[in-house]
Amino acid sequence: MTFEPHFFGEAFLGIAGALPLTLFLTLAAMINGFVIGLAVAIIRLRKPAVIRPLAEFYVSFTRGTPVVLHLFIVYLGLPMLLDTLADHYGWGFRSKDIPLFVLVAAALSLTAGAYMSEIIRSGILAVPGGQLEAAYSVGMTTFQAVRRVIFPQAIGASVPGMCNLFVGILHGSSLAYMVSLMEINGMAMMLASKNWSYLEPLAAVALIYWAIVLVIERLAAVVEKRWKVYSAGGVAG
Description:
By secondary structure, this protein is mainly alpha-helical. It contains nine helices and no strands.
């Protein structure tokens, strides 16, 4: 076996063409996961008796099972559920109308939401209790104190965890090829099997993943540094 630079270049360009899809899946999962995680974290901190067990089960089950399982549960289960409801209520909408990338993004969002809830919850708990009392002493309401004092500091403390989660979801998106969605890893595997040469496409996709992670690490370092300066001021303006 020999390494073919020409094929490596072709594979790199072909794989790079699928990069927007990979970034979309990852960013969509992180954004949706943040919303889900924030809601779940608040539920677990406020401890409402009715829905807290559901939130606890969601976090425990999702963190205790592999990403590929979440992918296939959504890929196989969600269309079945939607078609059953459509038949029962007479909807014109069918699961076949859902783009495949939406199903994959939904599965990754559920995964990200469970981990994000722990990251946000830990960030909130890391803020000293005296911060809330200080906010009350200057006349803030609970909502104002959380929004202007607790939440900014909690997010700042959560940046490293969010960066690690982004990397994890980026890597998790590589499983999308198992349901025939050609993101960068799927494209690499397709080119490798088509040309009966795996080393060049795998080397190319490894470099692309590595480059993305390096960029995210640098951005996270800048955000964390600026947020620490911002939080040092105590109260947001």
